[in-house]
Amino acid sequence: MKTATSGRTLGMNKIVWSYIGVTVLLVAVTCYSAVTGSLKVSVIELFEGLFSGTHETVNIIKDLRFPRIIVSLYTGASLAVSGVLLQAVMRNPLADAGVIGISSGAGLFSLLFVSFFPALFFWMPLFAFIGGAFACFLVYSLSWKSGLSPVRIILVGIAINAMFTGMGQSFNYRGSYAAGSVNQATTSIFTMKIWKDVDIMLLYGSIGLIASLFLYSWCNVLSLQDKTAKNLGIHVTRARLVISIVAVLLAAVSTAVGGLIAFVGLLVPHISRFLVGSDHKVLIPFSALAGALLILSADTIGRTVLAPSEIPASIIMTIIGGPFLIFLLRKGGRIHGN
Amino acid sequence: MEIKDVVFSYDQKTEHLKKVSSVIQHGKVTTIIGPNGCGKSTLLGVMSKNYEPKSGEVLLDGKAISSYKPKELAKKLAVVHQHNDAPADITVEKLVSYGRMPHKGMLSQNKEEDEQAIEWALTCTNLLAKRNRPIDQLSGGERQRVWIAMSLAQRTPILFLDEPTTYLDIYYQIELLELIRDLNVRHGLTIVMVLHDINQAIRYSDQIMVMKEGEIIVRGTPEEVINQETMKAIYGVNVVVRQEQGLGLYIVPVGI
């Protein structure tokens, strides 16, 4: 009994420390990111300038860097949570919006939308959502054979992803004159982010993130078998549908605003599970924080390492993400016990 | 509980359950036995609404289970499956607490009742000392008890168990069957289970249902059902049936 109690406090401690750690890092990286770059101020100057509104450099930083930081944070959080939700719903540790084609579906649709209706910029995430939902539907229906097999989902997803990515690229090549204007919808460069992007991200992203916090008990029960979940009185299909919708919304809005970034939804949930366990009540908010930290770090590194040139965060993520995916595949079935 | 002319097919070609009808007696232990692929688990699946029958219906308290909402049904009937799957790091208590899902509303939830149910489930299954252990640190027998505890936390009058003793060594098999009997005798649960071992079925059941090729061949007390002829007809095995003072009825297979 004694060991059991101490085991519990140990587990709780690990969760608490992980939360403290990720929050401290997040604040630190955010401050660092805000003061670092071609324009330099100190953190104290930054805060003074923000409150007084008279510091000229700080005002420029506010308009140039803040939207970029906020969009990075939201993109990371959304993609990470989207990954957690997709993994719960597909009972598949390898599900990620970027890997199985949801992001590229969303990307393609927002690319088409921007090309044809540039004025309706604010509605782009909804169109991206339709694209992502379409891709998600394709993956589900094409990999469903009396149940969802983890490997089949990934294989079908990779094919769908390749298809949508190819369509997006060929659309880009159709004429060089248009390519520049839509390029930011397909590759992830946070450079050009302005407050208008922040508005979109805050609205749609917050809806998705807040909704995800209410889904934890469904996610938990879906991590058991379908029939077990059913016998516990869960509408399994309904729960899957609702969770998928939130996951696709999060992936779509981050793709529409932040561009295509793969592997976040794969990497962050796994590290988070290792740190805080697989209870979604703790896992979902933690993944949001960790995802925000990861993308902001990637973006900050990308724009400072080779300054004044930039490496897009999405490229940094693919470089980290590829080896990580191999690592996960080799680790194999250790995710689920029993 | 009543099963009425249930026809079920997995592939729409062959009927895996052929017009099965039967009654499950309230407050008794009913065991379904039969050769591999005879439809035992399928019948249990249909009775717990995991499978939709092609025709026929299952009545629970006079109402067809197809008309029950999932939550309503989960308050009346709990199922322990043969294969179970859960994240490796989940603790015993956490997993058992999932059994309270059917009793949770959108906003309403009775914490005290939940805690009592979990406590009771852990006590019955003798898991109080292991409540904070992650399930991958448990033995096979303990793990199976955790799944039973989760079902018990649902506080249902009826408990289904699909081959609960498979994969367990004889010690854990007997431990589990004693637990099941205890739940029936002391807590009045109606038990329906699928077993492979005939002698265990005889020893721990009030009623035995014998199935073959999607049909219930006979149903009755162990003494009524288990004899040389039925065993030969159902399994194709020659057995000697013995009745001994203090041991009761038992069979010894002697050849095929």
Major beta sheet summary of chain B: 6 strands, mixed
Helix content of chain A: over 70%
- The CATH H-level superfamily of the largest domain in chain B is P-loop containing nucleotide triphosphate hydrolases
CATH architecture field of the largest domain in chain B: 3-Layer(aba) Sandwich
Rg of chain A to the nearest angstrom? 20 Å
- How many domains is the backbone of chain B divided into? 2
Please summarize the sheet with the most strands of chain A.
none
Q: Tell how many strands the DSSP assignment of chain B holds.
A: 13
Order of helices and strands of chain B: EEEHEEHEEHHHEHEHEEHHEE
State the helical fraction of chain B: 25-40%
What is the number of E strands of chain A?
Answer: 1
CATH C-level name of chain A: Mainly Alpha
Structural class of chain A, by secondary structure, is mainly alpha
Task: State the gist of this model.
The complex is a heterodimer of chains A (338) and B (256). With 338 residues, chain A is mainly alpha-helical. Chain A is 77% helix and 1% strand.
Summarize the structure in words.
The complex is a heterodimer of chains A (338) and B (256). Helix content of chain A is 77%, strand content 1%. Chain A is mainly α and 338 residues long. The longest helix of chain A has 35 residues, at 56-90. Chain A is globular. Chain B is α/β, with parallel strands linked by helices and 256 residues long. Helix content of chain B is 34%, strand content 27%. Chain B is built from 9 helices and 13 strands. A 6-stranded mixed sheet of chain B has the order 6-8-9-3-10-11, sandwiched between helices. In chain B, strands 2-1-4-5 form a 4-stranded antiparallel sheet, with helices on one face. The longest helix of chain B has 18 residues, at 170-187. The relative contact order of chain B is 0.16. The mean pLDDT of chain B is 88. Chains A and B meet through helix 1, helix 9, helix 10 and strand 1 of A and helix 2, strand 6 and strand 7 of B. Strand 1 of chain A pairs antiparallel with strand 7 of chain B.
